[in-house]
Amino acid sequence: MKTGRNDPCPCGSRKKYKKCCANRSASSILQEMKEDIHNLIGGRSFGSIEEVQAVLDQYQQQKNEAPVEEFHGLSSAQMHRFLNLPFESPELITFPLEPAREPENKAAFLLSMLIEGIGEDGMKLTAKGNLGQKFCQAAHRQYYARYPDSFMANLSVRSELNFEPLHTIRLTAQLGGLVRKYKGRLLLTKKCKKALDRNGLRELYPLVLHAYIRKFNWAYRDRFQDIPFIQQSFLFTLYLLRKYGSTWRPATFYSDNYLRAFPMILEEIERKPFEEPKDTLQRCYILRALQRFAGFFGLADLEQISQGPINREYWVRSTGMLDEVVQWHLQS
């Protein structure tokens, strides 16, 4: 039976076939499997087929648990859980509900402004259900005064949609159940008020972060194609930052190693006449995973080293907040 592109790869990596061995010839895969099996059971005596199967099962388990070079020390089994069960793998990682330190980053800053603007009485929304122009303009000024960006700071803000970071926080806060719309106003929910009373931003920040990871669409309004796998593999991005982020490195270091781990993602990239799929993926990954995720939520610092707003180049390093929001239990 032919292996489907979305079926588990028969090599045992636990990745989908299209993201693993689909790019390798059938003959090379078969030859590798024959050599492995020959080395494993050749010349040995077995009393039953069950004994043979037990040996093969043990071998497959050892293979799945062995570190993979492309995964930077993670095994195939660990990567499977990173990709498919990130919040249900306490033996590998846990996500504290409250960081030890007060979050000081772009996302937390805008969340604080939004909550303060809503207050006890709520905030009146526009006819289209967006935040009011005056609030957005004031938030825009304060945001770029704190986090300077000469190009973005000079953009005109006529509505919430012109200030992407605030729009993202408002939507994510709704997805996280912290704010809700009611009769033309934006209100704080009971969940939000209780968290505020208990621990303030220290409790609210993880709720928004998790909503962004699990519910927000990372492809929203960024003009790239969907590529949901970038969002699904968020934990591998954080793993790379934890492993290599103690020193400044170019953003392309992370995009290159991401592609090295998942080369078959290139098959999903729509071809353009003026750009190679690898370059498209690189730009998309840096924007979504590093700028709008790790950078926006304060898990990484990004320093722009290029001039102008187009195709920005960055140096990247991790921050102390990374180990506050993800606790790693991986054996070295």
Please give a structural write-up.
The chain has 332 residues and is mostly helical. The protein folds into three domains: 17-65; 106-214, Arc Repressor Mutant, subunit A (Orthogonal Bundle), CATH 1.10.10; 229-328, Arc Repressor Mutant, subunit A (Orthogonal Bundle). It contains 14 helices and eight strands. It has helices at residues 26-41, 49-65, 76-84, 106-118, 133-146, 150-153, 164-175, 190-199, 201-214, 229-232, 234-244, 251-261, 277-295, 322-325; strands at 93-94, 123-124, 179-182, 185-188, 249-250, 300-304, 314-318, 327-328. The longest helix has 19 residues, at 277-295. It is elongated and about 80 Å long. The two termini are 40 Å apart. The model has no long low-confidence stretch (mean pLDDT 88).
Chain-wise SSE layout:
Layout: H1 26-41, H2 49-65, H3 76-84, E1 93-94, H4 106-118, E2 123-124, H5 133-146, H6 150-153, H7 164-175, E3 179-182, E4 185-188, H8 190-199, H9 201-214, H10 229-232, H11 234-244, E5 249-250, H12 251-261, H13 277-295, E6 300-304, E7 314-318, H14 322-325, E8 327-328
Helix pairs in contact: 4-7, 7-9, 8-9, 12-13
Quick synopsis:
The chain has about 325 residues and is mainly alpha-helical. The protein has helices at about 25-40, 50-65, 75-85, 105-120, 135-145, 150-155, 165-175, 190-200, 200-215, 230, 235-245, 250-260, 275-295, 320-325; strands at about 95, 125, 180, 185-190, 250, 300-305, 315-320, 325-330.
